[in-house]
Amino acid sequence: xxxxxxxxxxxxALGIAIAFVLATLIGAExxxxxxxxxxxxxxxxxxGAAAFVSLGSRLAGNAGAAQIAAYVVSGIGFLxxxxxxxxxxxxxxxxxxxxxxxxxxxxxxxxxxxxxEAAVVAVAVLACNTLLRPLVNAINRAPFDERVSEATYEVHxxxxxxxxxxxxxxxxxxxxxxSYPIRDIDVMERSEELTEIATTLVSTAVEPSELDAVAxxxxxxxxxxxxxxxxxxxx
Length: 235
Fold this sequence. Notes:
This protein has helices spanning 6-32, 39-81, 94-111, 115-130, 133-141, 164-177, 208-219, and strands at 85-87, 90-92, 151-159, 182-189, 195-201, 224-233. The protein is of the alpha+beta class. The chain folds into two domains: 6-141, no CATH class; 151-233, Alpha-Beta Plaits (2-Layer Sandwich). A four-stranded antiparallel β-sheet has the order 4-5-3-6, covered by helices on one side. The longest helix has 43 residues, at 39-81. The N and C termini lie far apart (58 Å).
């Protein structure tokens, strides 16, 4: 006859219930904002983490719980990676993945019976995803100063396929004269008549007027139909 440890069962049920409630609060906020990992995903992550950590604790005490918790921390990374999408230099889903990671932490704490600690983490996660949003929006709307920012800078020129070699040398010469070392040069065919040369700079900060002058100088060449530069924030 199978023996049921009512005390252990009660501890497991309490831990899962705490994880369920706290993760529901976090997941509801994510669901409201239509994130890829919403209510059910966050709750399942927290409940699963609570169950695994509770199992480890029951089988091998604190050592077993610690070992299982370590696996939860690393294992949740694979689930988080599934919600991260990248398109060129743009990345989406990092905040959602981090929220899932925190939900796993809440579940692990709940599985160990650390309800107060789990609640503290849940409050911190909710505050991060809600109260910090106005600050993030204010920072994003602040004027962008290329001279003090850490970003990736590229110089773009358009030329004909037969002039690619000479135009490339001209770009290198112009940037070296302006004291901007080059990290990489990409040559991309845009059409049968146009080829783009994208030159990535080593510098983490630039003087916009200097790059404007470089672009203007390059555009004067009969081999180059257009020259410009761009910047994008480093990840």
